[in-house]
Amino acid sequence: QVQLVESGGGLVQAGGSLRLSCAASGIIFGINSWGWYRQTPEKSRALVAAISSGGTPNYAGHVKGRFTISRDNTANTASLQMNSLEPEDTAVYYCHARIRRDGVSDNYDDYWGQGTQVTVSS
User: Fold this and answer.
1) Alpha helices (H) in the chain, listed in sequence order
2) Is residue 70 within 8 Å of 8, Cβ to Cβ?
3) Which helix (H) or strand (E) covers residue 92, if one does?
4) Reduced to 3 states, what is the DSSP secondary structure of residue 18?
5) pLDDT tens for residues 41-80?
6) SS3 content of the chain, % helix, strand, coil (to 5)
7) Euclidean distance between CA atoms 8 and 43, whole angstroms
8) Rounded distance, CA 96 to CA 22, Å?
């Protein structure tokens, strides 16, 4: 059974930086894509950044140029480097991975991390 464990959240001042990490553990046949999402009581969960199996990143407009997503296929991990943080970035951040179900089929399952709080003070 696969689990995703997040780390790196915390409290920072506006203009500061944080790096979030997500590690997949268990029996891993292959990770297709990774994504980072964020959610607040006022806004539904929304995609912040994603990276494809080939390493191509995509970003939401409000974080483009400030955040960088990366992956380590050997370690089965993904990271989100967040720079120039703004109070509007305050949210619970969740990592997501689409992972191959077994070694022979084309079926994939979606897994979510437990969430980590990022708070940016003004």
Assistant:
1) none
2) no
3) strand 91-100
4) strand
5) 999 999 999 999 999 999 999 999 999 999 999 999 999 9
6) 0, 55, 40
7) 22
8) 9
Cα distances (Å, whole numbers) of residue 19 to 2, 74, 103, 107: 23, 19, 32, 31
DSSP per residue, 38-51:
EE-SSS--EEEEEE
Strand pairing class (67-72; 77-82):
antiparallel
Strand 77-82's sheet: what is its strand order?
Answer: 3-7, 18-25, 77-82, 67-72
Instruction: Give the Å distances, CA to CA, from 122 to 12, 15, 80, 84.
Output: 9, 9, 21, 12
Task: Enter the tokens of residue 22.
Answer: 């997500």
Cβ count near 62 (within 10 Å): 13
Token pair listed for 98: 């689409």
pLDDT in tens, 3-29: 999 999 999 999 999 999 999 999 999
Backbone angles phi, psi at 88, to 5 degrees: -70, -15
* Pairwise CA distance, residues 10 & 28, whole Å: 29
